[in-house]
Specification:
With 100 residues, this protein is mostly helical. It is built from two helices and two strands; from the N terminus they run ββαα.
C-alpha cells in the first residue's frame, strides 16, 4: 500500500517512516489520529473500522508470506548454484570398455 502523506483536521501531516510502504506502526498511528479527530456525535462506523483492521491484518499476513517465500527462493537459488558448482568440479567418469 503506497501512501505519501495524510493530513488530519489540525493540518498535522502523518507520513510513513522510511520509504513509501506503510507498516503496522504507521497504520496504528493513522488509526489513532483518526479516532482522536472524529466527531463524538458522529463516530466512525464500527463495521468500517473492523473492515479496515481486517484488511490490514490480511495485508500484514500476505507481506509476511512474501518475505518467507523470498527467503525460500533465495535458498533454492543458492542450493542450485552449489549443485552446479559440485557437478562442474566432479571429474567425468572414465568410459567403460566394450565387452568382448
Amino acid at each position: 500500500m503506497s501512501v505519501n502523506s495524510i493530513t488530519n483536521a489540525n493540518n498535522v501531516v502523518l507520513q510513513p517512516k522510511g520509504g513509501q510502504q506503510m507498516g503496522q506502526s504507521d497504520f496504528l498511528r493513522l488509526m489513532t489520529a483518526q479516532l482522536s479527530q472524529q466527531d463524538p456525535f458522529n463516530p466512525v462506523d464500527n463495521q468500517q473500522m473492523v473492515a479496515q483492521m481486517a484488511q490490514f491484518s490480511s495485508l500484514a499476513g500476505i507481506s509476511e508470506t512474501n518475505t518467507t517465500l523470498q527467503q525460500i527462493s533465495e535458498q533454492l537459488i543458492a542450493q542450485t548454484q552449489l549443485l552446479k558448482d559440485i557437478k562442474a568440479a566432479t571429474p567425468a567418469p572414465a568410459p567403460t570398455p566394450p565387452a568382448t
